[in-house]
Amino acid sequence: MLLEKKLIEDLLDAGLSRGADFAEVFVEETDSTLLQSLSGRLEKANSSKLFGVGIRLAKKFQTVYGYTNSQNPADLLKLAEDLSKSFNDDKLTKRTPLMELEVGPRHNAEIKPQDVPLTEKVAYMKKAYKAASEYDEVIQQVIINLLDNTQNVLIANSEGRFVTETRYRVRITVGAVAAKDGVMQTGGVAPGSGKGYEYLFNEIDIEEYGKEAGRIAVTMLNAEECPSGVMPVVIHNGFGGVIFHEACGHPLEATSVAKNASVFCNKMGTKVASDILTAIDDGTLENRWGSANYDDEGYPQQRRVLIEKGILKSYMVDKINGRRMNAAPTGSSRRQNYKFAPTSRMSNTYIDNGESTFDEIIAATEYGLFAAKLGGGSVNPGNGDFNFAVMEGYMIRDGKIAEPVRGASLVGNGGNILYKIDMIANNLDSARGMCGSASGSIPADVGQPTLRVTGITVGGKRGA
Amino acid sequence: MLNIDKLFQVAKEKGIEDIQVFLSNSTNLSVEIFEGEVDKYEIADNSSLTVKGIFNGKMGVYSTEVMEDELIEEIVDTIIASAKVIDSLDDAIIYEGDEHYEEVEGLYNEELSQIDVTKKIEMLKELDGKFHNYDKRVKNVETSYTETINSILLQNSKGLKLHNKANASYIVGQVIVADDKDQRTGFDVKITNDFNDYNTDELVETITSNALNSLGAEPVPSNNYEIVFSGLSLATLFSAFQNVFSAQAVQKGISLLKGKLGETVGSELINIVDDPLMKKSASSRSFDDEGVATKFKYLVEKGTLKTYLHNLVTAKKDGVKSTGNGFGGGIRSVNLKVEPGTSSFEEIMASVKDGIYITNVQGAHAGANPVSGDFSLQAAGYYVVDGKIVSPVALITVAGNFLQMLKDVVMVGDEAKMTYYGITCPSVKVKSMMVSGK
User: Fold this and answer.
1) What contacts B376, CB < 8 A, 6 or more positions away?
2) Residue that terminates a domain, selected from A172, A194, A222
C-alpha cells in the first residue's frame, strides 16, 4: 500500500475540519525508463522514480489543491491542515467511512517493464533502427525512443471511495530523417499500448514500423510543396482522428463547458454535426493507450457516446466542473501525475464507422488533398479555431491519389467542420497521442475511419 | 533527505568513476479567480534528485523524488546497468568547474514571497473586475497568479559545489469577447519577481482591446503578402525552431544550420543572442546543469552564424569550449533574444503596402518542422493596406521556411518584448510570405 489507511483517513478528516464539503487524497509512485538511440547507438538510458501525494479539498465550486513528495505523516497532515484553512464554515461535512479497497482488475501487463532487462530493450531498438535505416540510402539519421512507465496510484475520498490500480504504458517512436541536395524531410511512427512489453515483442512487427518511418521520410523528400486554398480534404483513418480530438473533443470537456467557454455550451440534445457522424470517448477499451480502470478521481472509467448521428449526447465531466454544470461526473477526470489537480479529459476518442468505403471516397473526389498522416495540432476552445499539420499528403486528381505534397497545414473551426463531413468510410483505426491541457500531458488515443470534409483551408507554400 | 556523501561513497565502492547530483527544490503558490471569486488555490512543495554516474566511460542517469537512504543501492546499480548498455561514441564528462561564476543580480527577491497572499488575491480580484467593466462585450474572464521559488544544488565527485536560488511570479489573463456575430479570445502573461511591476490597467487594456479589435475577423484571399510579425508571434516561431542552434542537433545531422558556421543565415538586420545573465528573467543562471559558467554570446551577428550552443560533450567533439548551455541532459538557450533594431512600430506599419500584421500564431509544436525549417502555421492579426489597418484577420495560415524568413527580414522594430516562451523578440517585417485563406 502506498500510504497507510489510517493516515489517509486522518488526512481526509483534517481536510474537512474547517468546512470543506469534499476531500480527496491521491498517492502515486511511478517508475519510468527512457532509452534513446541515434544512428543505432544508444545515447541515453535514463530511469526515474516519481513519488508524491496530492490533496484536494472543495466547497461547492471552489477547490484547493496541494502536493508534496514528502512521505512523512507530519508533513502530510500539515499540508491537509494548511489547505483546510482556505475554508471557514461551522457546518462540517461528515466523512463516509472508506469502503473496502477496490483494486483495478483490468488492463494488466503480461510482461512487466521492470522484468525486461535493459539489454533486451536495447536489442529491440536496434531491430527498428536496422529496418528504418536500410529502407533507402537517403535515410541519414534514425532517432528511436523507447519509453515505459509503471504508475501505481491510490485514490481515496471523503465519500468513501478507496481504490488502487497499476497502469502500464509502453511506446516506441521511430523517426527517420531523409536528406538530399540540402533538403531534409522526416517520417515517423509511434506505436504504443496500455499493456506491457508483450505488445511490442509479440503483437506488432517493429520492422514494418521501421520501414514505414523510412518510407514516409523518402516520400516527403520527393514531394512538391503543397498548394494553398480552400479545397475538399480526405483525412485518412487512424491518427486522422486528431481533427476530432482537437476541434470537438477539447470543447466537449467540462473544463471549457462549465465556464461557458466552449462553442458547445447549451447545445445538449441539439444537432451539432452532420447526420452521418457518431463520436465516442471510451476509457474502458481493453489495454488501450488512454484506458484505465478508474479515472483520477477514483471513479470507474466509462464509455461515453459524445455525438450520435449528429446530435450532442454527452460532455466529458469531472466532479467539480459537474457541480457548476449540474451534471453527474462521467469518469473522465484525469491528470498527468500528482503534481496536477485532475480535470475532465479525453481517453480513447474516435469517430465511429460510416457506410462508405475508402475507394468510394477517393473516387468521388475530383480535386482535393488526401491527408494520409496528420501530425499534432491545437485548438482555441474559446471560439473553436483549430490547426493541424499534415505529415504525409497527396493531391487527389480525377478521383485518384496523385503526387505527394509536403508542408501542408489545415485550419478551420470546430463549430462548423462537423457539418462539412459528407462521407465516412468503414475502416475505423486508432493511433496513440499525448494530449496536453490543464491537468498536464496524458496518453490519449485518437481514431476515425477515412472521411471527407467538403471544404477546409489548406496552408502550403505553393500559391493557390 | 538522502545522504549525498554516502551515495558518493557507495558509488565509488561499486566502481563508478565519477558522480554528480543535481538537487532541485521548488515551492509553488497558484490562485485562480473566476467570476470574482477564488476558484482554485494551489500550494506545492517538490524535490527531485538527478544522479549521473560514469561507469566504464559511459554515463548512466537516475532521477528520483524518493530521497531515502535505502534507495542508494538501487540508484547506483541502475546507473551501472544503464551505463553498460550505452554504446554511444560520445564522451561522458563530469566537470571540475570554472574559476569564476558571474552573479546574476536580483534572481531571488525576498520581498515577493513576504507579501501576504491576501494582497495577491486582492490584485487578481481587481484585475478580474477591470476586465468585466472594460466593455460589455467581455463575456468570460479567467485570471490567475502563480509564484515559484526554486533552489538547486549541484555537487560532484570532482569537488564542484554550486547553488542557485530564484523566484518568479506571473499573472495570466484571458478573456472571451463576443458580439451578436462573432466570438474571440484574448490572452497574455506578465512575468516578474517584483510585485511592483504589475500594472493591472495595462494588462486589461492590451488583452481586451486586442480581442475586441479582432471581432469579425475573417480570412483574406490566398496570396503572397508583406508580413509584419509581432514580438509574440516571432517568439512563437523561435520557440519551434530554437533547437536548430543546438550543436547536438547539428552533430547528429538534424539541424538545418549544419555546415553553416560563419555563413550568412539571415538578413544583416538580424542579431540573435543568448543572454543567461539577463535581469528580471527567472531562467537566468550563472552555471548550467553540467556546472559550466554561462556567458552572453551572439548566435547570429548581422546575419552571420557565429556559434552553436554547446554542452561539454558537443564542445569536446568540435574542439571548442562549452558555451554553458548543457541543461536537462540536452542543450538549450537560457534567454534567447532577437535584438531590437532601429525602426519604430509606426514606421514598420507605415511601410506596408499590402500586408498582414500577425499578432498571433498557433500550432508551432506541429506545423513547424525543425529539421527542414518548413512551417505552415495558423495565424491571426490585421490586414494592412497603405500603412493602415483595414480589418481583422483570422483562420489563415502563413507558410515559409525559417531560414528564408530570416533572410527576408527588411525591418526590425526598436522595442523587444519578453514573452512567456522565455524568448525576447521585437516586431519584424518580412518582405513576402505565402498566406492561405479563402
Assistant:
1) A226, A389, A407, A408, A409, A459, A460, A461, B367, B397, B398, B399, B436
2) A222
